[in-house]
Structures are given as structure tokens and as C-alpha cells.
């Protein structure tokens, strides 16, 4: 009776939600998906019916990660508020049929439209754009079969007014670029495969009739990202040919992201020479072959740069200081810097230097002082070994960057120099990183709380101090310099990887525990930490980092056994906000205990497991899918037979596809020869964001697209 009376008293003294001011209610409603607001919430009462149609809530409609939306909901949404929508983002809605696009024609006042990842034919695009006379920003895919000659004159008139275009190419084509005569921002994503499904080699030469080239006279931002492959390089050269003839006077951002070798030609050299003479840049990224060994950086002029990427270049620290940051001047505006794979960028010169030699702390200090407003910094894929000088450790210098939101570091850069010099390797590291005895997981041998960890050693380490100083960090990547994923793009699965360097072999549980100080951490990547013995630090992260949404773990501890399984399962029980989980570990057992722990992640949407010789229990997977209702992506590349994988994939699709329209399931043997063919059918959103491993810090300029 006492309990009942207390509850009644609380209810009588409680505040009715409807008593809040309209401003507060509008702020609360802004966190609700637009489809729910319009189709459900607004039908609850008169007040909410009015508020849910407020312009602040209907001006911008985001459907890009609303995995529950279907064709009927989109149709009803456009019918109810189509005229009120000015910005519509449907990026990555791969599950919606192409006929869904027809309903966008109701949005007569659209200014921005993102259809990347949606199925749009030339005729549908023409019909839709013909009605959108106010459109100024557009993102689309260009798929095989696209025919620009099918675009109507009304459609071309709309395109002529478009100022921003993002175009993802899956076939050699100019797409709609020649029609966009007023372009100020052009983003190109080249995803063309070298071979067709039938095995025929593709050509990068564009079809006759498409040579009415792009119009770049008003261009301010040019960005091109290439997937691996020769055809992509051929096609992007055709886009660049026009730029080499006449460089736009207002160009202030020029960015080309190309993996592997992308040789410089006479045309590209003319383009760069013209840029050096005629423009002042705010953002720059070039293929490594265009920078290595050239004096280009010495001649380029910069205005108020906000983004630099010298990924995989052989740029030395001396050149970086002299030619880029101008001796420590004029770089307060720089907010994002990508030096991933620049093995000599923190050394005075690269001619006689070995990759694992100590860095020059004075170069890093100059960088930190001159770029004091950095928010995104990537130093991964290189051996940045600090010297024994007191106060000059890489972690100590980086702790001065108080504005950092995302950071990527190599594993070997975070170890204490004194500890690595004085202490011999621990016993487990003397065991070859191949096969090992099975581990008992019934007894937990790791410390149960943060205090136990602190007593071991971590509070005095330089990495612990760094994590303590970057309290607002949202994204952290700690990746081994020698790490390579077992699932590279467009290639067979890698069977062997290079061993970590000596300093990296000291990084383990205590360093992972230090990460738990990052209260606002949202995304965490840990790869190739060989000294993980129990994974105890993961439990601390699960307890302390309650905002964690994305977790990627790869090759932790010894390769012959999953030593951190028990700690991982304990961690997952606390990750209530986790949405994306990627695990890459040989011999991983995805069994009942693992999936039972994973079921505590009630917000989980995407799961990817990559495991050479890994095993799975089909019944456990099915039970997990039934209990976690938000999961719409399940990718598992294991050591099971093709028959087992196919049967499980079919069972999941058959059981859950109807109620989860966005469901994407790929279960396939990791070392099967047809893996690359299977990968090409994965929606680009999932492939780029989670399935393929890569460093994502400062990968692109911030706010490149809305």
C-alpha cells in the first residue's frame, strides 16, 4: 500500500509533457524521425498535430538512416507535407523501389535533394527534375544503362541552375555534369569495376556524344574519390582534362583521393602549374605520385586553409614545416589534417631515415603550435616512435590540442618510452602469433573495476594523460602500423599480415583502459594490439563511455585464440547506445554466449564479423536476430562451408525481410574465390561505413556534403 501511495503521489506531482512551452516541445520533437512525427505522433492530440507540422520540423526531412521507412510511408509523407519540404535526404535508401522516386515530384519547393544509393533511371530522373525548378543541390548515382539523351529540356533547365552536385559513378560516364553549367561544388565518387559480371574488361573511354564536356568556370570545390582500379583512373582523367585547359579563378578546394599508384601526366602537370599561378587554396589533397619528389607544395598558394591531406606521401617533416605550415604561420584556420601513411612526416628528412627511427619532437611541436585549432588529426599507418627526451613524447605534445574531436594514432606511438626500454616482453608475447591453446572462458581473470586497473600502472602513463586531456574527443582510432584487413577492396582475402613492431608489442589492456576516460566517445577502433591478455580495458569502456555508437575491434591479442572474449561479452552488456559493431579476429567463435551478450545492445543496427577459420552457431544467430529488432545488416565472413553460410543467410532473409525492409544479409566463407563477386552487391552505405576496414579520421574535409 505504501508503494502504491508513493507512486500516486509522484503522478500527482509530476509535470504533464503538454504543459511544456512550444519551444521546448519543438526541441524534443526534433529528435523524432519525420515519418513518425507526420504519420503517428501528430495523430495523438490537437496540440501535437499543430506542432508536428511546424516549419522547423518539416523544412528538412532526413530519411537516410530511417531503416523502417517503406514505399507507402514515403508516399504518405510526400502527400501530407511535400510542399513544406525544402531539403530531402534519402541517401542510402537502397531498399526502396525505384518507383518511390516518383513521389518526390510533390516537393515543388525542394532546394536540396540527396538520392545517393537510390535506384534512379534516366527517365525517372528526367521526370522528377522537370518539376523541381528551385533545386540547387543534387546527389545521384550513375548506373550502367544511364543515358543522358533521355533527359528532357525541362530537366536540363533545372540542372543548369544546380550549384552543388554529388555524383557516384558505377559506369564510365559524364552523368549529368555537362548539363550543370553553373556548378560551384562538384563531388565525384568513382566506383567503376574493371570487369563486368561476365568477366569482360571495361574501358574507361566515354561514349561518343558525351564529349560535350563539363562546365567548370564557376567551380569553387572539386573533389574526386577513386575506388581501386585502372578504369576509375582513366575516367577521372577525362573529368580533369577540362580543368587543365582553364583553371577556374574561384577554385579554393581541390581534392583527389586515389589509392595505390595514380601517375601524373602532362595534362595533370599543366593543371597543377596553372593552379600554382592562378588560385589560392583552402583545402588540398593529391595522389602521392603527384607530390612525391616534386616542388609543387613550394609553389602552391594558400588562403585560409581548413583541410590538408597528404595521405601515403613521402613528405618529410622538414618539407611539411617549410612548404605547408610556413614555419608556423597562418595555419590557425586549419581544422582537419590527414597524415596517414606519411612515414617520414615527423622527421627532418627522409633520404637516409628508416621507418622505425625516432621522430623529431620539434617538428611535431611546431605542428601543434601552428595548428592549435585542429579538430581532426590522422597520424595512423606509420611508425611514430618518440625519443627518450622528457616532455617530448608524442602523446604529451598532442595533449595541447584541446579542440580535437577525432584522432587516429598508430599503436606504437602511445607506449611509454621508458617502459619499452626497461621491460622485457611479457610471457604471452614470446609465443608465436599463430596458433595457441584454447582458453577457459568460464573464469574471469581480469580486474572488475577501474580502480583495480589504475593500481596496476596506467595513471602515470603518457597515454593515460593524453586521454585525460582530450575529454571531448568523439572518435578515436588506435591502429597497428602493420595491420592489414583480411578483407581488402576488390582482392582475395589476405591470409597473412606483417607482425607489429617492438614498441607496439607493449600496448595492451592498461592502455585500452585509459580510453574509458573519454566520456563523450562515440566511435572507437582498435586494431592489432598484440599485448591484450584479457581485454579488461574493454569492460571499463563499456561502463564509462555510455555514448559509444560504433565499435570496431581487429586482431587483439594473440592470433591463435580470442583471449578477450569474456571481457567483450561483459562490455557489450553495458553498450545500450551501440549501433555498429565490427569484429575481425581469426578463430572467432560466434556462439550462443556471444550472441546472448550482444542481445543487450538494444540499439544495434549493423553487425559485421570477419574471421579466418571462425565458426558460428546458426541457431544462436537466428535467436539474436529475433531478439534485436533494430538489426538491419548482418555480414559474417567466417570459416564455415558455403552450404552452411547459404542456408543461414536464406533463413534470416525468409524470417525477417518482411518486417525489416532494409535488411541486408551476407554470410559467406572468407576465403572463397567468389568473395569479391559477393562484395560488389553490398550496398555502398554498408560497404563504405562498416564492412571494409579503413581509417576514417580526416578522410574527407568536414561538412563536405550536408
What topology emerges from the helices and strands here?
Blueprint: H1 2-13, H2 22-29, H3 34-39, H4 46-51, H5 55-58, E1 60-62, H6 71-81, E2 87-89, E3 112-114, H7 122-129, E4 137-142, H8 153-160, E5 164-169, E6 185-190, E7 221-226, H9 230-245, E8 253-257, H10 266-278, E9 280-285, H11 288-291, H12 296-299, E10 301-309, H13 317-324, E11 336-338, H14 361-370, E12 376-378, H15 394-398, E13 406-410, H16 417-422, H17 450-456, H18 462-469, E14 475-479, H19 509-514, E15 523-529, H20 536-544, E16 550-556, H21 565-572, E17 580-584, E18 589-590, H22 592-598, E19 606-610, E20 615-616, H23 618-627, E21 633-638, H24 642-656, E22 664-669, H25 675-679, H26 684-691
Parallel strand pairs: 1-2, 2-3, 3-4, 4-5, 5-6, 6-7, 7-8, 8-9, 9-10, 10-11, 11-12, 12-13, 13-14, 14-15, 15-16, 16-17, 17-19, 18-20, 19-21, 21-22
Word description of this protein:
- The chain has about 700 residues and is of the alpha/beta class.
- Among the domains are: about 300-385, no CATH class; about 410-415 and about 465-490 and about 500-690, Ribonuclease Inhibitor (Leucine-rich repeat, LRR (right-handed beta-alpha superhelix), Alpha-Beta Horseshoe), CATH 3.80.10.
- It contains 26 helices and 22 strands.
- The strands form two sheets. It has a 20-stranded parallel sheet, sandwiched between helices.
- Helix 14 links the parallel strand 11 (about 335-340) and strand 12.
- The protein is globular and about 65 Å long.
- The termini are far apart.
- Mean pLDDT is about 90; it is low at about 420-445.
